[in-house]
Amino acid sequence: MEQPVKKVVIVGGGFAGINLIKHVCKDSRFQVTLVDKNNYSFFPPLLYQVATAFIEPSNISYPFRRLFQKKTNLRFHMGSLLKVNPEQNNIETDTGVVNYDYLVLALGTESNYFGMERVKAHSLPMKSIDDALNLRNHLLLNMEEAVHTDDLKEKEKHLNIVICGGGPTGVELAGMLAELGRNIALKEYPEIKDLRSHLYLIDAGKTLLSPMSEKSQNEATRVLKKLGVHVINNTAVKDYRDDIVYLSDGRTIPTNVLIWASGVIGREVPGLPAAVIGRGRRVMVDEVNKMQGSQNIFAIGDICLQTTDKNFPNGHPQLAQVAIQQGTLLGKNLTRALNNKPMEAFAYNDKGSMAIISKFKAVCDLPKFFFKGFGAWLVWLFIHIIPLIGFRNKVKLAFSWFWSFITNDPTLRLIIRPRKKDVQ
To answer: Is residue 304 within 8 Å of residue 285, measured between CB atoms?
Structure first.
C-alpha cells in the first residue's frame, strides 16, 4: 500500500529553513510548504553592506518562487505567522490557514531592546532588507541636512552616528562607515571636515567581538581606533530621547542616528505552551530538534534552545553555521522517520568564526589557529560569496566588491525613498 504524502510546513526561509528544504524536497513522499512574510531569501551577514550603499539589495537576495521552479513537491505561502494551533495541526497566517503533518519553526530572531521602549521606537535596527534600506536612506539624508545647516549643534547631531553593539555586525558597520568617511565624504561633502570623528561604537561588554578570541578582539579594537572610531566598552545605552543617547556612565551623545545591533531575542510564536519557551524566548527542543512535549513540531536555527549537545550544554550560539547544520540534519531525519528509522541526534561541528573590520582587514578564528589581515579578508570574501543563491548573484557581488574596493568609490548612494512630508 502506498504511503500517504506527508505535509511539511516550514516557517521561515533563512539559513535553517532553506537548508532543510534542500534535503527534504529530495523525497517525493513529502509535500513541502514554505511560509515567509517576504517573497525572497536574503543573506543577513551582508546587510550592513547594503545599509552603507556598498552593494545592491539584489546582490544578496533571491525570489523564493524562482528558487523553487523545479521543485514539484514544494510550494510557497507568503504570509506572516499569527498563531500555531497544535491540536488542529495547522497554523494561522495573515493570508490564510495552512495544515501540516510536520511543522518546522525557523523564524529566527528579532532585535532585543531590553525593555527600552524609546530606543525601540526611535533607533534603527539591522535585521532585514527593509531595515538596511531605511538605514541607508537615513544616513544619506542626514548628510544632506548636515550640509544645509550652519548651526553647529544641529550639524553635530546629524553627523554623529552611534552604533550600539560590539559584535560582528557592529564592528563591520563601524569599519565600513569609517572607510566611507575617509574615502568618500571629503570628495562628495567638502563642507564636512571629517566624518570619522563622529563615529561611536558602544558595547556593554569588556571587549568587542566577545565570542571570539582575545587576538581577534584586540585586532578589531586596534583597527577601528586607527580609523578614528570612538570605541566605548563597559558602557550600555540606557535611553534615547529628544535625539540624545544616554549612556550608563552618565555621558550623552547628541545624534539622530542610533543603530541598534545589541542583542537578539527569539521571535514570538503565539499558540505554543509557555512551558516550552526558554531563555531568550527560544523554543526548547530535544536532541533531534523536536519541541519538548510534541511529536510533530520542530524548531531549528536561532529560535531553538537545545541543551543536549555535550559541547554546548547551555545551548548553541546563534550563528549561521548552527542553523545550516540543523536544517540539513532535520531534512535527513524526517526521511529517516518516514522509513521507520531512529533520528540522529544533533551535534554542532564548530568550524570557527570570522569578522571583517575594514577594507583588507579581517580576523579569523579557526579551531586550531588564528589569522588576520589581508589573508583573512580574502577568506571572508570567498566564504560570503559561496553561500549566495544563484550564479548571477555571485558574479554581481564579486564584481561590485572588486570595483568598489579598487576605486574606493561605490556608486549606490541614491536617496530613493521620499521624506515623510513629501508623501501625500
So the answer is: yes
Q: Give start-end residues of each CATH 3.50.50.60 domain in the chain.
A: 6-111+264-338
User: What average pLDDT does the structure give for the chain?
Assistant: 89
- Cell numbers of 49, please? 553592506
Chain position carrying cell 531590553: 114
The CATH code of domain 6-111+264-338 reads 3.50.50.60
> Over 80: is that where the pLDDT of 399 sits?
no
Write out the three cell numbers for 257. Answer: 542616528
- Greater model confidence, 203 or 211: 203
- What does the pLDDT average to over 190-208? 83
Q: Residue 184's pLDDT is what?
A: 72
What's the pTM? 0.91
Q: Where in the chain is the domain with CATH 3.50.50.100?
A: 113-262
- Residue range 161-190, pLDDT digits in tens: 999 999 999 999 999 898 887 777 777 778
CB 332 within 8 A of CB 23: yes
pLDDT, mean of residues 240-269: 96
Q: What are phi and psi of 328, to 5 degrees?
A: -65, -45
Q: Burial of 261 by CB count in 10 Å (0-12 exposed, 13-18 middle, 19+ buried)?
A: buried
Q: Which of 104, 23, 24 is nearest to 285 (CA)?
A: 104
Residues 6+ apart with CB under 8 A from 397: 46, 55, 59, 60, 385, 388
Binning pLDDT at 50, 70 and 90, where does residue 424 land? Answer: very low
Distant-in-sequence, close-in-space partners of 199: CB < 8 Å, separation ≥ 6: 161, 163, 174, 177, 178, 181, 228, 229, 230
Amino acid at 59: N
| Highest CATH level, class, for 113-262 | alpha beta
Stretch 380-386: mean pLDDT, rounded?
Answer: 74
